[in-house]
Amino acid sequence: MKFCFTVDWEDWYHGLRLPLEETKKFERRIKIGHYILMNLLSKHNIKATFFLLGEMMEEFPELVQEIKDEGHELACHTYSHPFMIEITKEQFQSEIKYCKELIKPFQDSYEGFRAPYFSINDTNLWALDVLKEEGFIYDSSIFPGNTFRSGITGFQKEIHTLPNGMLEFPISNFKLAVLDFGVGGAYFRTLPYKYFKYRLQNILKQRPGVFYFHPWEFDHKQPYIKGVNQRAVHTHYHNLHKTEEKIKRLFTDFEFSPLKEILFENNPIPQKSILSPA
Ligand SMILES: [Zn+2]
């Protein structure tokens, strides 16, 4: 059993839920974390899955080309990073259609999707049907439990086929006291590495896992924005200075594959486009 290493490829301000207009003037810092990450992946010979944010693809196509040239999987993370519980089906559809245009210089289309903030829950499952209509093969957005923003309590934790025929690779998590801890992001930065490692080993005894990460988690000098949701601020900025050391240990202790490969290995009904070469 393995983990897949997944990167929600976006800049430092995208996780703060600020209006798009406000963020237009912000300094672009994605290259700082991007290059630390690319070097570490290469050094450890790890191929990952990058869920690309359209807005960043548009500004930095040369970085997307680098990701592709290194042999990583390219997947979709919407265009503008909306909190999907607050947008309409039509808005989502137009984001996805635009992203499909942006990926064309790099590959024919997308197979995989991840929602910002894991924000597909039981109020907007129509999003999965939009993805199916737009030709996606799999989704990896649903958090089987509660986060302070989203999640579906009781949702199946194993890779499975959704009612519409797409595959779902749910976000890996574990229970700690009354909280559901996701595998990656702020949860990884907050808990001691040895404890996190022990919980990851336990997950792998049951099923393959998905680890999620963002390039900005290496950027401990990113600007501090006052006045946004205090909880989001805490999770966003906590322990950024420790990320690099922890990721190095993680890459030494575990084996990783792109998400698509793990899906293919474990999917009892392999689908044509998963079998086809990337
Ligand atoms: Zn994101």
What report would you give on this structure?
- With about 280 residues, this protein is an alpha/beta fold.
- The protein has one domain: Glycoside hydrolase/deacetylase (TIM Barrel), CATH 3.20.20.
- Helices cover about 40% and strands about 15% of the residues.
- The strands form three sheets. Strands 1, 2, 3, 10 and 11 form a five-stranded parallel β-sheet that branches. The protein has a four-stranded mixed β-sheet with strand order 4-5-7-6, with helices on one face. A two-stranded antiparallel ribbon has the order 8-9.
- A hairpin with a 5-residue loop joins β6 and β7 (about 165-170).
- α5 (about 90-105) runs parallel beside α6 (about 125-135).
- The chain starts with a strand and ends with a helix.
- Bound molecules: zinc ion.
- Zinc ion binds near residues 15, 81 and 116.
Strand content: 5-15%
Overall geometry: globular
Poorly predicted ranges: 269-278
The CATH topology assignment is TIM Barrel
**Number of extended strands:** 11
Order of helices and strands: EHHEHHEHEHEEEEEHHEHHEHH
CATH homologous superfamily identity: Glycoside hydrolase/deacetylase
Overall structural domain count? 1
Summarize the structure.
The protein is of the alpha/beta class and 278 residues long. It is built from 12 helices and 11 strands. Helix 5 (89-103) runs parallel beside helix 6.
